[in-house]
UniProtKB/TrEMBL annotation:
<dbReference type="GO" id="GO:0000166">
    <property type="term" value="F:nucleotide binding"/>
</dbReference>
<dbReference type="Pfam" id="PF22725">
    <property type="entry name" value="GFO_IDH_MocA_C3"/>
</dbReference>
<feature type="domain" description="Gfo/Idh/MocA-like oxidoreductase N-terminal">
    <location>
        <begin position="2"/>
        <end position="118"/>
    </location>
</feature>
<dbReference type="Pfam" id="PF01408">
    <property type="entry name" value="GFO_IDH_MocA"/>
</dbReference>
<dbReference type="InterPro" id="IPR051450">
    <property type="entry name" value="Gfo/Idh/MocA_Oxidoreductases"/>
</dbReference>
<dbReference type="InterPro" id="IPR000683">
    <property type="entry name" value="Gfo/Idh/MocA-like_OxRdtase_N"/>
</dbReference>
<dbReference type="GO" id="GO:0016491">
    <property type="term" value="F:oxidoreductase activity"/>
</dbReference>
<protein>
    <submittedName>
        <fullName>NAD(P)-dependent oxidoreductase</fullName>
        <ecNumber>1.1.-.-</ecNumber>
    </submittedName>
</protein>
<keyword id="KW-0560">Oxidoreductase</keyword>
<dbReference type="InterPro" id="IPR055170">
    <property type="entry name" value="GFO_IDH_MocA-like_dom"/>
</dbReference>
<feature type="domain" description="GFO/IDH/MocA-like oxidoreductase">
    <location>
        <begin position="155"/>
        <end position="216"/>
    </location>
</feature>
<dbReference type="InterPro" id="IPR036291">
    <property type="entry name" value="NAD(P)-bd_dom_sf"/>
</dbReference>
Length: 319
């Protein structure tokens, strides 16, 4: 079992602590929180060992799980990496691209492994159809959330949209060509609603909308590619796959057939991939343990997390 320590005992940090404590792949050594009062409160309530010194916790573990505010990600990760510790770091990887780039250099220098917490990669709906998303040419994504003061210290792009940016980058095998975006601050001092159009070198276009001031929650992405339409509902854990193939010579009574202007006939058919049930946060944490033990590349590497941050910052810069 890998010895692990958690940095940060806020809302998400407490979830990580609970799951790591339950995991059979980790031994939870303890946690550190910059707020000593909160740290002692969490320790008293849940029984986890509280370290009042971040360096002592890092020294005591093999893996450091960083669930602190984004502004402190870089400092925490740098301390851990320079001690030769593997790091799991919540999204976004860092506050600036320059910080992320330096972490990549440190990762290489100290020969450690790192993974970024883009949890939607482990969403069972996305996992069920990702292998079918081949060369999409148009993608539409909506990530809408009811207002919550937690997370408003960063623009909605870094808070919410970055999930979809990472998912899209994982299926579009092409460099970004151009980005156009707009954002509006309604309640916070940073944008609360944003829309971005990302054009890729291969011709694919992705249209992303994110809001944290909506009346209802929605997390849905639609992928359009040759002869197929794939819809992923990240919130409801549902998928819809609609495909087309050449129509048979003899059309059945219940077959859906369309004919284009050139006279070509296509049959429409539906697939219902099985969507499993899982705890996505536990899965991402345990997949990182597997990557360390098996010396394999993490599902969401630090480089991929850096690419998602780079695009997110380009979107913010184009407001």
């Amino acid at each position: 079992m890998l010895r692990v320590g958690v940095l940060g005992a806020g809302h998400l940090g407490k979830i990580h602590l609970r799951l790591l404590n339950e995991s059979t792949k980790y031994e939870l050594v303890g946690f550190y929180d910059a707020d000593a009062i909160n740290g002692k409160k969490v320790a008293d309530e849940f029984g986890y060992t509280y370290f009042d010194n971040i360096n002592k916790l890092i020294e005591a573990v093999d893996v450091v799980d960083i669930v602190t505010p984004t502004l402190s990600h870089f400092d925490c990760a740098k301390k851990a990496i320079e001690k030769g510790k593997h790091i799991f770091i919540e999204k976004p990887i860092t506050n600036t691209y320059e910080e992320a780039a330096e972490l990549l250099e440190l990762e290489k220098k100290h020969q450690i492994k790192g993974q970024v917490g883009h949890v939607e990669r482990f969403n069972p709906a996305f996992s069920a159809v990702k292998h079918q998303i081949n060369t999409p040419m148009f993608i539409e994504s909506h990530r809408l959330a009811e207002f919550n003061p937690r997370g408003t210290d960063v623009p909605v792009v870094l808070d919410l949209m970055i999930h979809d940016i990472d998912a899209i980058l994982s299926v579009v095998n092409s460099e970004v060509k151009q980005i156009n975006a707009s954002g509006v601050s309604v309640i916070s001092k940073s944008p609360d609603i944003a829309n971005a159009r990302i054009e890729f070198e291969n011709g694919c276009v992705a249209n992303l909308t994110a809001s944290r001031i909506s009346l209802k929650n929605m997390r849905k992405s639609r992928f359009f590619q040759k002869d197929a339409y794939i819809s992923v509902d990240f919130l409801e854990k549902k998928v819809e796959v609609v495909k087309m193939k050449d129509a048979p010579e003899k059309v059945g009574d219940f077959d859906m057939v369309l004919q284009n202007a050139e006279g070509e006939k296509k049959q429409i058919y539906f697939e219902n991939p099985e969507v499993g049930t899982n705890n996505a946060i536990l899965d991402e944490l345990e997949s990182f343990a597997d990557a360390i033990v098996n010396d394999s590349t993490p599902v969401v590497s630090l480089r991929q997390g850096t690419q998602a941050l780079k695009v997110a910052l380009q979107i913010i810069a184009s407001f």
